Amino acid sequence: MKKFALVLAASALTAVAAFAEDAAPAAEVVDTDANGTFSLAEVQAVYAAVTEETFKAADTDASGELSAEELKAAVDAGAFAA
């Protein structure tokens, strides 16, 4: 039973790591306040040319901050230039 639990735990950790890799848009953008989202200031620390308008366009749920998925989509689409 213990071996099964260890295998299950290892599988779960692998799945979480794989999901984090998929969702991690730009490893260099740091969530400095550790709230799970990225503010305009956090994004501009890496992508200085990002304007408020560009940021708002990337914020598809209009929450005022970018989720990892929103940030990745903007980076992948070339909307945020380094």
TrEMBL record:
Keyword Cytoplasm attributed: no
Give the highest taxon in the source lineage. Answer: Bacteria
InterPro entries recorded: EF-hand-dom_pair, EF_Hand_1_Ca_BS, EF_hand_dom
Q: Which residues form the EF-hand domain?
A: 46-81
This protein's record includes keyword Zinc-finger: no
Q: Which UniProt keywords apply?
A: Signal
Q: Which residues form the signal peptide?
A: 1-20
Q: Name one Pfam family in it.
A: EF-hand_5
Record-given protein name: EF-hand domain-containing protein
Q: Please give the organism.
A: Tabrizicola soli
